[in-house]
Design brief:
The chain has 225 residues and is α/β, with parallel strands linked by helices. The chain has a single domain, classed as 2-Layer Sandwich (Nucleotidyltransferase, domain 5). Helix content is 42%, strand content 16%. A five-stranded mixed sheet has the order 3-2-1-4-5, sandwiched between helices. It is globular and about 50 Å long.
């Protein structure tokens, strides 16, 4: 979607919202895709969920961290466990190591999501396989406040796929996983399936991808969208 269309949709949606955290988020214009990516701020986001269907599955935890220029601002790192309805599926509990007791002590989604939206305001979202984050956050916004979510998004998986294709490098699906790509750039290996550590890994991967492509003169954000 072009920058002009998405910005028009932001304004249109804002006019039709009652006061709420989503309206607060939408009051700030989206970053222009023509700006130099080095001059923008980003938020790397990861969700752990009970499944991959945002229409029926639930968010277990949210992790995010802010980036300014080429720097990850570790002091902004945030991790929120969420309370879910019903029991956590056994296979999900094994993967994410989040138990029913931990979830029961977590935050309600309506209390945690405004924190994330506040940090995303005016910034670009980074996520790996971003359709998961976009789907779940969008569904949550519609359920809580009646309208969907919109954000400029850098999907580090998509950036990697384009790079492989541009360089005519053969790859398989597993090569596009977050930690497999991190290994290509000799990035630190974190434990998988933790929202905050995966958000940090996505942030580091984006910076590595950008450094690999940047010839020192910068690039417009649209090159990553």
């Amino acid at each position: 979607m072009t920058g002009m269309i998405l910005e028009w949709r932001r304004r249109w949606r804002l006019k039709r919202l009652e006061p709420c955290p989503l309206a607060d988020y939408l009051r700030t214009p989206l970053p222009s895709p023509e700006r130099d990516y080095r001059d923008l701020e980003y938020v790397a986001v990861d969700l752990e969920t009970t499944g991959l269907d945002h229409r029926k599955d639930q968010i277990l935890s949210i992790g995010w961290v802010l980036l300014t220029g080429h720097h990850i601002r570790l002091e902004t790192a945030s991790h929120r466990l969420l309370r879910v309805t019903g029991d956590i599926p056994a296979d999900s509990a094994v993967i994410h190591q989040i138990t029913d007791d931990q979830s029961a002590a977590g935050l309600e989604l309506r209390d945690a999501l405004p924190e994330l939206l506040q940090d995303l305001s005016g910034r670009v979202m980074i996520a790996h396989h971003a359709r998961v984050e976009l789907g779940f956050i969008g569904t949550a916004c519609r359920r809580l406040w009646g309208k969907g979510f919109m954000v400029r998004t850098v999907d580090t998986q998509t950036v990697a796929r384009r790079q492989f294709e541009r360089r005519q490098i053969a790859f398989k699906g597993s090569d596009l996983r977050l930690h497999a790509l991190g290994a290509r750039y000799n990035l630190p290996r974190y434990g998988a399936h933790n929202a905050l550590s995966d958000a940090l890994a996505a942030a580091e991967l984006f910076l590595a991808q950008a450094a690999h492509r940047d010839n020192g003169r910068g690039m417009p954000l649209r090159q990553f969208l």
